[in-house]
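Progress against Task 2.4 (sequence-to-structure conversion) is shown through the following example record, which the project officer requested during the mid-term review.
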Amino acid sequence: MKKTNMRRFGALVAAGALVLAACGGDDEAAEEVTEETEASQDASDCAVTTLNIGTILPVTGSLAFLGPPEIAASDFAVEDINAAGGVLGNSVVINQGDSGDTSTDLANTEVDRLLAAGAQVIVGAASSAVSKTVIDKITSAGVVQFSPANTSPDFTNYDDKGLYFRTAPSDLLQGRVLANLVIEEGNTTAAVLFRQESYGQGLADAFKANFESSGGTVAEFLAYAPETDTFDAEVDKVVAANPDAVVIIGFEESGTILSTMHERGVGPTAKMVYGVDGNISGLDKLVDDASILEGIKGTVPSVDLASISEFTARLDAAGVDGVYDYGAETYDAIVISALAAEIAGCADGASIGAQINDVTKDGEKCTDYASCLALVQAGTDIDYDGLGGPYEFVDAGEPAAASFRIITYGAAGADISLDQYVFAS
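Structure tokens generated for the chain above:
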């Protein structure tokens, strides 16, 4: 029977009992020989013994500020895996690519290049909308797509052939956290400005549902096209509605929105304003005068950074400039994929995808590739918690629970609070 560990999240995980029927004597020995023969045949049938990973992470585009921690973390993961002996006795290969954003078709071009180069796991995109443009191409090729940052609820039930995974939680959770934060700070009315694409719409809908169910009123629910350059009309509606709070769900265009809000007297220094993971970490780089951000708060799916200080120091040394969002999740996506390949005995996408969920639950806890690899090679079921875990993937290939931190901007820059909000899915 597999052991189910108690989790520090406090989420309850229901596990069914697996009843093992054992045969004795010669029958048992014959069964063992048969299993060994089948395993040998399976290994000899494997056509892919080198794990080839590609990435489509935001080097350019509206989420480029999230690129440095994700790209650095992906390199660190491969370095650590190879230092521990690699996968199936071979060094892991990584090819970095740029996802761009939805204003270009760069992600599709990069995916074509990575598939031609033999990638069996493609890590990315960071943007849910970008992932929507390539998920069918990747999974139809029998390749795993593993995003460290997609949060759109649309992916939970997406027809992905069992090959799409994410270490980031669904925005159904973030919407609840954000709504609770806004309500707890005494706001009863809110205006919401959001990008009209899968990420923005999904998170906006989740916030609205949770805010209203908690007794709040959404005074304005304003969608804008991702390519919008000016936001005078939207901000004028916010001014007219005069809500207690304003929620902005966007990417780099959030800087323009906030500057316009400040000019109209509804910016963070005048009203309670909230951001999200798509914008909050890099806002001080998106406005000319960071002082106009004083008081703005935002939610980010994140592990407690103090608990991974060695990793964040490693990111700092790589020049990430203090933005750590989704670095741990990127690192873990690659380690989980590598462990899945080792367990499967083959590094092709289908074999890896079949093992990924089980890597994160119902086994002996381990927190780094080297220790997990030793357990796998000893025939032990593992439960990889890693830098951002525990994950406890559900059948949909995503975390059952997540923790969030609140970022608050002061007059001199971002002051990061480590308050954690945890919810089971």
